[in-house]
Amino acid sequence: MSWWCTGIRWNDGQPAIGWYGERRGERASLLTYGQRLAFVARGERRCLGVRRAGKRTPCPTGAAVPGRAGNAQCPECARLDRSFSVAADTNAADPRTYRVYLAWFGPGMVKVGITAEERGRARLLEQGAVAWAWLGRGPLMATRRTEELLRAALGVPDRIAYARKRAVRAHLPAAPERARQVAELHARAAALTGWPDSLERVGCEVADHAGEFGLEGLPDPARVITEMVPGGVVVGQLVGAAGPDLHFAGGLVVDTRLLAGWELVAPVDEAAVTSVPVAEIPSAAMHPPAEQDGLF
What we know:
By secondary structure, the protein is α+β, with helices and mostly antiparallel strands. It has helices at 75-82, 122-127, 140-154, 162-168, 175-190, 210-213, and strands at residues 4-11, 14-21, 25-30, 36-42, 50-52, 55-57, 97-106, 109-116, 131-139, 200-201, 207-208, 223-225, 233-242, 245-248, 252-255, 263-265, 278-280.
């Protein structure tokens, strides 16, 4: 029975690699910083089907997925997935309570978003938010309207590329400065008018994920894997993780979105390796902070 990688999962603030077996369900392997990892991609990358309400429905055709695709789904399964997606505004009747959050990834890299309250901080960990704070809570459509209001008024984007996040991750200001920047933007958001009446505002309490991500002493990222290939081997010491990224000693970064859909097994002979395509990561100096209303 094969186990297919589903990418990184964050369990109570600790990174784990998720696995799926068609007749065995799902499981996860917790990761520890400092441990040695070694795996090889076997066979071909395949569609992981659709996961909804904690259960995964296999792809009916077991379709192959391109190695460079950021999502391990075939077009048909991806369309079905988005038909019940809050992010795609196709599930407006969701009765759950939602929260609006402010996420900080680095100087000049801030976004506003929403997440189901029952998920806690999982969405912030998945995105690689280093510092963050809640802004409010309420029904889905109220939080969605608040999200759009704050994006427009504060001049922050709806998403930030992972390439920008990882490039500055080893060169962030200290925790007090991160907290100051988040608190300042939280105060600006709270002072705005036009918030929906059904949204309960939340006071500013800045949280930080430096410990969960292993940011202290993180090496400057130098290379990132751009594609897994059949027989491709990755070997190294895990030193940190943030969002979907695994950071290895020596500066190698593995985007686990590219691992999803592969059957990963222990290499028989690490000396007989197949090269995995990588790209150089530009220096953090090449990613200057974006201006956001002069806040930073």
